Amino acid sequence: MITVEEAEKIILAQAGDYGAEIIPFDLSLGRVLAENIKADRDLPPFNRVTMDGIAVNYNAIESGVSTFKIKATQAAGDEPVDLEEHDDCVEIMTGAMLPASADTIIRYEDLELRAGLATLVTHEIKRGQNIHYKGKDKKQDDLVASIGQLITPALISMVASVGETELRVKKLPRVMILSSGDELVEVDQSPSPYQIRRSNNYTVKAVLQKHHIEADMLHLPDNPEIIKKQLKNCLENYDVLLLSGGISMGKFDHIPKALEELNVEQLLYKVQQRPGKPFWFGKHNKGPLVFAFPGNPVATFMCLHRYFLPWLNASLGIQGNPQVRAVLNDRVSFHHPLKYFLQVKLHQNEYCQLVATPVEGNGSGDFANLTDTDAFMELPLERNEFKKGEVFKVWQF
User: Fold this and answer.
1) Do 177 and 150 sit in the same domain of this protein?
2) Could you tell me the pTM of the whole model?
């Protein structure tokens, strides 16, 4: 049996690169950039007005002019209107291009407009005010987004502004979710008193959808020949297999033998943790990975967040993924030689600290308890007592 840290190291060592694909920029939210994006021109591309008001030349104010003749009105997108006389001004709107003969914008709030004239009602005017100057944000050919960035709404806005209609993004691994066992029936079926409905596979699928992976699902009956045949097909057509259950030492746990016969090397089995102690991980000799989670719902859920998602982020090269920590809000005891992943409810206190309140359930089969929590707090293996106010890692879900 190995530690959580050793298991993490083994799994992250198998992070892979699944290539890249080109997709429309407006369908790229949540994906990972596989190219650098540069500005195709200065940003902003012209001296841009940032307030509704009038455009003037500040020299006129310095020479004592306080009332200006309104020559024209210029909206955003209009061709700029030049000032011809010393006391000319142009009514101008936010987003418009500053006329070359003007250098200052006076907002409407600082003016009185009457009969084609604009008169200052304040002396608090500065040369160059209310202008966003050309190239202030980025110069042409400056980097605006880089490889490994997660595509957010803000990044979509940026790539749209530089005319990128398509983006090269990291390909996601092809994933198959496998459940097993004759005790499981489909959701729309009525189980007998000794059966239960399948739920782990749908839970895993839902988590993966949040990460833009549309995984396939397959159920394996307790038949060694069918199991081997189906696993062989999956290993030939998918990059990752996520199994829930069927990996322990029970009489009907046929999966370990089938994986061995199909040349899947066991890289780890059993981790010093609760829940999820009988977690199995291996690699096929042609590359596909197998994450075999314990069948208990909470164990599957925890292992998915603690091991698979960090592996996925590493494989996609996602930048800046800091570990979240929270303050324990109650005393906890755990007298087992295992690292405890405590279910917690998170909130922010008046000091802007992330606080974790324990919500202990009835073991790794108590999936109902997950609906009342939103993270696992990872408590150190070396200790049995954990005090209120101590800070530990949390894995949010």
Assistant:
1) no
2) 0.86
